[in-house]
Amino acid sequence: MGFDTIIRNGIVVTATDTYPADVAIENGQIVALGANLPAQNASAVIEASGKFVLPGGIDVHTHLDMPFGGTTSADDFETGTRAAAFGGTTTLIDFAIQYKGQPLRQAFDTWMSKAANRAVCDYAFHCIVTDVSGGQLAEMNDLVREGVTSFKLFMAYPGVFMLDDGSIFKALQTTSKNGGLVCMHAENGSAIDVIVQQALAQGNKAPKYHALTRPTTAEAEATARAIALAEMADAPLYIVHLSCNDALEEVREARDRGLPVYAETCPQYLYLSIDKFDAPGFEGAKYVFTPPLREKWHQEKLWNGLARDHLQVVSTDHCPFCFKEQKELGRDDFTKIPNGGPGVEHRMSLIFSGGVAGGRFSVNRFVKLISTTPAKLFGLYPRKGTIAVGSDADLVIFDPERKHVISAKTHHMRVDYSMFEGIEVTGMPDVVLSRGRVVVEHDKFLGRPGQGEFLRRSTYTQVSA
Ligand code: URP
Ligand code: ZN
Ligand code: ZN
């Protein structure tokens, strides 16, 4: 018997186990796991001794080729998925945006055509719903049947993306019945808008005012309100890009009460703080994203939340805009700086480095946060998110010792700066496979645009610690 590929002598890591095993791959799937699998007839043998073999990362929060703030995010589905692959992430869930008055189908079709023939690894979509006044609630059921089983709603950005509480409640009642999952951008947009207008009236227009006009209380209030609306609708809830301890406390309390409430945070909230706005001139624009950076003490609270299962997922909210020409749009007014930062490439190394190498949690917890729980919550498990016979051979040969200094000079994202410039990480992917094909080998990209497939997802599965 011959396999397509055997990964030999590695340490297989899943959300629950760590053990030495060879991994055999055929037709893009894992077909055997065990000691001393017969390598002599395999078409390719990858040596993994001294390395971890991890399930490919799943980043459930990216914005590729997304129009926003008068420009478009700098990575498209080719460059964004390629950069993701360099970092060990082999599945992305991006956001298809329904603009007011449009059917959801239009959003889905538009984003499908953005990704087709470009993506180098597999992808799926959440649908951003900004208007439920037409037939959109019924359309949510249609999308769930077609594998778009989660929806992002905004409590911020009034006049652009924000939904009122009644509309949010109706959408939650809909997912309560159709098995979908609402992903909530939880910030009190109406209050923030008042604070923003007051800042502008006082002439406070520098980048730091983006952060100073979005207090943690606005995030915590919206998080609590979202949880209450979901509880009334008897629906599960997923809070996106949670940035601060105040909001974390709301999630922890809801979970203590047994509610199906989940939350993600992102590497920027774990590594960076509001002090970044002390940089001279317009430099702070590099860190203008929403929710904003917080005071440093929140970071350890978030790490602790990841370790204790108060937070279940780390995503990136990758939404890159070049400093020159894009962030520049807001040089005279922080409200015109396109919101978002680049991060898809470094999520796994940053979380391994701070979490596992930093002694905060186990390598199994790491796998759970960056792959297994995302797969379960978003209907991709067990095809994705684990290493098991029958799962896709999305695999990362990961060197837990290799050190790397993050820099825009060496990264693969199509953006002219790095939020994490100069940070040294411990732990880097050596070889990355997407459905059995090597897409990255050390510094070489071996993938091909268009080889990524759209993933029709199942509905949400409840996840416990
Ligand atoms: O600033 C951000 N986060 N930009 C992307 C849009 C969003 O709210 O996730
Ligand atoms: Zn958001
Ligand atoms: Zn986002």
Overall description:
There is one protein chain. This protein has twelve helices and 19 strands. The protein has 465 residues and is α/β, with parallel strands linked by helices. The structure holds N-(aminocarbonyl)-beta-alanine and zinc ion (ZN) (2 copies). N-(aminocarbonyl)-beta-alanine binds next to loops. One zinc ion binds next to loops.
Gist?
The protein has 465 residues and is α/β, with parallel strands linked by helices.
Based on the model shown, name its key terms:
465 residues, alpha/beta, nine-stranded mixed sheet, eight-stranded parallel sheet, 12 helices, 29% helix, binds N-(aminocarbonyl)-beta-alanine
Please give the structural blueprint:
Elements: E1 5-13, E2 18-26, E3 29-34, E4 44-47, E5 52-55, E6 57-62, E7 67-68, E8 71-72, H1 77-86, E9 89-97, H2 104-115, E10 122-128, H3 136-145, E11 150-154, H4 165-178, E12 181-185, H5 189-201, H6 208-212, H7 216-233, E13 237-239, H8 245-256, E14 261-265, H9 267-271, H10 297-308, E15 313-314, H11 347-357, H12 363-377, E16 395-405, E17 424-434, E18 437-441, E19 444-445
Parallel strand pairs: 1-4, 1-5, 6-9, 9-10, 10-11, 11-12, 12-13, 13-14, 14-15
Antiparallel strand pairs: 1-2, 2-3, 5-16, 7-8, 16-17, 17-18, 18-19
Helix pairs in contact: 3-4, 4-7, 7-8
This protein binds N-(aminocarbonyl)-beta-alanine and zinc ion (2 copies).
